[in-house]
Amino acid sequence: MEEKKLNKFMDQAINDEILEKLSLKNRYQFLNTTLMTALEPEQLNFLKKAEKFCIRYEKKNDITHSGDEDLYEWIPDFGKEGLISRVHPFDEIDLSYPENGLAVELLRCLALNFFDPQFSMGGGATVLAINPVYEHHENIPIRLEVLKKFVTGETPGAILITEPERGSDAVHMLSLCEEQPDGSFILNGEKIYNTNAPKAGYVVAYATAEKNNGNTMAQFLIDTTWDGWNCDRVFIPWVPRVWLGHEHFVNLRVPKEFVLGGIGKGREHLFEGLVPERIGIALDSTSQCWNAIAHAAIYVNNRKQFDQEILKFQGVGFLLTDLWARLTNVTLGLLRFCEKYDEKVEKFGGELPKNLSQAMVASASMFKYHCTSLSMQICYEAANLMGGAGLCDNTLMHDLLNISRIQEIVGGSRQIQQYIMSMAMRTLYKMTGI
Ligand SMILES: Cc1cc2nc3c(=O)[nH]c(=O)nc-3n(C[C@H](O)[C@H](O)[C@H](O)COP(=O)(O)OP(=O)(O)OC[C@H]3O[C@@H](n4cnc5c(N)ncnc54)[C@H](O)[C@@H]3O)c2cc1C
Do 243 and 271 lie in a common domain? Predict the structure, then answer.
């Protein structure tokens, strides 16, 4: 037991009493109390159920969130509990989750992020692989089988868009796909920074029939045991327990039934996936903020300096409440967006019409832009309010601080979101007829 503790802490800086108060259970308690009025009773029930699972899981497995723990080992257990993705009910793979949709997904993210921010981020990448397989399974048995493996936690998934020479400019890809007479494809090329890829049993990847021609892009499901799949790990020091991939496709053959979108369909499928991807990052970033605020709120209500709880000093209390107010308001906006999205999905029988989905592009960029920026500010300032205790390894604060620094890059950088928003504003302006 003592040995495990040493694995987690280089040294314990926080006193026992405050450290105990920062427990997962107490941080959830802070979250639930703050969100109580914003959530419907059934939403709060779902959140509490997910939290209860995480608290028990942490305790039962003696999880300390230290660097030597393999978060990929936890995935099957979270899969059994139905906590990998709740975006869809997943009737087609006989799961039929009664609580599903984007609003439920926000609650799932909150519960998992409080438990372990890096685990939650890795899970987010699996969701990105789930979405295209869900949209394009066409009842083909192998696709449904892979979908079930992702959703039930049998394997993590990954999405391969970025290339070493094509990051922000994702539609001018260099990885090539060549169609064969039997409908299969041969892939050659290189991808990079793909979250979970070295650990994933299957991935979703894009390639193009002609370099730099977005009109010839295609989308594939790949089994990572196939010949021609070569994957090395890219180590990102700010998320040391998440595995990212750098892949080389060398004459990688993809059978016809694994082709999710043939030549000419790739770009459409890519854009279709970007709205849920950006919202997903917004949900996770918002959850990071709440986790940081919960830590700081508990800490400053207990830490004393000059014989007073530090919350009582205006420099501390007013800064924390400013962050808290901004976060609460963004969360309410995000929740409203998620609920409206879910309403529309229900109204249109499970799938959004193209024009509506298009209209969501600007909102998705706005939330991605705003929530990731907020995560960077809130995680930093909340850690700051905890002084040295916010920087050492005794709590999840250093994980939050580190993870908050990559959110603006993942899923399209800040500048790219601004570019998308300015284009959307141009379209909107033209629609006004002014
Ligand atoms: C931790 C992590 C996880 C990731 N996970 C995945 C994943 O699962 N799958 C995947 O496919 N990719 C993933 N990525 C890749 C990520 O999406 C890219 O890193 C990102 O899109 C930026 O691409 P780039 O790194 O090539 O930077 P570049 O595109 O080279 O950008 C460099 C800088 O230039 C700016 N810039 C570029 N073009 C413009 C422009 N037109 N206007 C203004 N500024 C511009 C950018 O904003 C940025 O600041 C991940 C990255 C990280 C760091």
Answer: no
Residues 407 and 316 in one domain: yes
Helix spans in 116-161 (H):
117-135, 141-151
Question: What's the pTM?
Answer: 0.96
* Residue 409 beta carbon below 6 angstroms from any ligand 1 atom: yes
Is there a contact between 123 and 408 (Cβ–Cβ < 8 Å)? no
Average pLDDT for 144-171: 98
Looking at the fold, whether 164 and 301 belong to one and the same domain comes out as no
CATH number of the domain encompassing residue 218:
2.40.110.10
The average pLDDT across 197-226 equals: 98
Enumerate helices (H) and strands (E) in the chain, giving the number of each.
13, 10
- Average pLDDT rounded to a whole number, residues 239-253: 98
- Centre of ligand 1 to C-alpha 364, Å, is 17
Q: From CA 75, how far away is CA 118, in angstroms rounded?
A: 12
Q: How far is the CA of 214 from the centre of ligand 1 (A)?
A: 18
Ligand 1 mean position to 331 CA, how many Å? 26
- Cβ 297 under 6 angstroms from ligand 1: no
Give the structural domain span for 234: 157-264
Q: Judge if the beta carbon of residue 193 lies within 6 A of ligand 1.
A: yes
Q: How far is the CA of 412 from the centre of ligand 1 (A)?
A: 6
In a domain, 122, yes or no: no
Per-residue pLDDT of 215-235, as tens digits, reads: 999 999 999 999 999 999 999
